[in-house]
Amino acid sequence: MDAKIFFGSREAVNENFSERKNPYSGEVVSRAPVCSGDDAKKALKIAQEAAKQAKASTLSQRCDWLLDVAKGLKENKEDIAKTITDEVGKPIAFARIEVERCIETVTLSAETMRTMHGETINTDAMASGKKTISYFTREPAGVIVAITPFNFPLNLIAHKLAPALVAGNAVVLKPTPEAPLTAYKFAKLFIESPYALKDALSVVYGDAEVGSALITSDIPRVISFTGSVPVGAIITKNAGIKKVSLELGGNAATYIDKSADLDLAAQRCALGAFVNSGQVCISLQRIYVNAEIYDAFALKMAEATKKLVVGSPYEDDTFMGPLIDDEAAVRAMGWVESAIQEGATPLLPPHRDGRMFHPCVMANVRDDMAIVCEEVFAPIVSLVKVDGFDDACPRMNNSPYGLQFSVFTNDLLLAKRAISELDAGGIVINDMPTLRFDIQPYGGVKLSGVGREGPKFAIEEMTEIKSVVIC
Known about the structure:
Layout lengths: L4 E3 L2 E3 L4 E5 L6 E6 L3 H20 L2 H17 L1 H12 L3 H24 L3 E2 L12 E8 L2 E5 L7 H12 L3 E5 L5 H12 L9 E3 L4 H9 L5 E5 L2 H10 L4 E5 L4 E5 L5 H13 L9 E7 L3 H13 L19 H16 L3 E2 L5 E2 L2 E2 L2 E4 L6 H4 L6 E7 L2 H9 L3 E2 L1 E5 L3 H10 L4 E4 L15 E2 L2 E2 L4 H7 L1 E8 L1
Helix pairs in contact: 1-7, 2-4, 3-4, 3-6, 4-5, 5-15, 9-10
């Protein structure tokens, strides 16, 4: 099936197509139009006009719209899950979970918007003021540009589209080139809904040319981007005076305290390090282990990792499928080989077969090794021996990234310290840093980004406050 452009509510095609091959089988699974900068500009102009109508629409219609999309996702769950697996190689069990999460994200966005409101202000609270009727309201920002990555090709679109549209904006979406059909099928549910706002959503495909045309235009008021730090830096430099929300890279870490439940910690760390083949911004990459329990934990971590099933993403019991492309697999092996040359020890033999890269646990890792200093975005996790939390905390914080961290401990005072002293957008106690609930605020500090996602928080990013005074 071919993905198509949406210029507002109208489908369009062009003569140039790109093919998407399944990362596991190499078979062509979808095709998408190759858009130009002019296509992006056309979509933005349509969105500019549509934003006026969207702002005038009722909240009731917009909420019904999202709930109808959620209903369509439920009805097409298996087809959309299989499309995710086809395009990005995500194991089918986790593709189904992504569809379920997407349904929750869309539903939450509708429920959240129903209860968002302004506030009255006491303008006579200061001696310089006087008694008035004063309040503020939230209004749609206008046109939103949404740019999304391959690792969660459905739910990360939902985290942008659903809050933006229910708040009364118009959106131009540029989905990842690796999953155009997933994006098309999702967008089609919005556009074909009987509650849809005409032309409020456009979809264009492409890379740098299309992205540049979208972010440098004066039409959008908000750029919402999830992706790499280098691209995020380009967006920040070239976007001009508009809101920019960036969810960028991470280098997630955890600390295993001597009081922790080591069986629980090993099982959850294996999941957090290797789910989606490590291709998650909050994938666990660094494990700082108290020296007193280092050897015991390393053994349990290796055993937990051995149990993970690596194979065809179409099998229900497969935990890990292929990496997204050959380049990612080659880069992953390069990380491991470099670390071994620097003195690290693999607890399981490194193994790569094409794009299939088996989970790798590296021991005897030092802080100065590249494998812990940079984001690997692959199924590789490193164990670092520390003397305790006082030793681990500054090492965890000594990173240009700050998305999510965690601590495994049964010491309440230590948990409270970790929440206060760890420098990240999210802190998890007694679970993997990869844990994320879609209702929560999600985003990072430092190079991990600017702004927050999660329905309520994305709506705040995508609306403007209007202050009113009646004298």
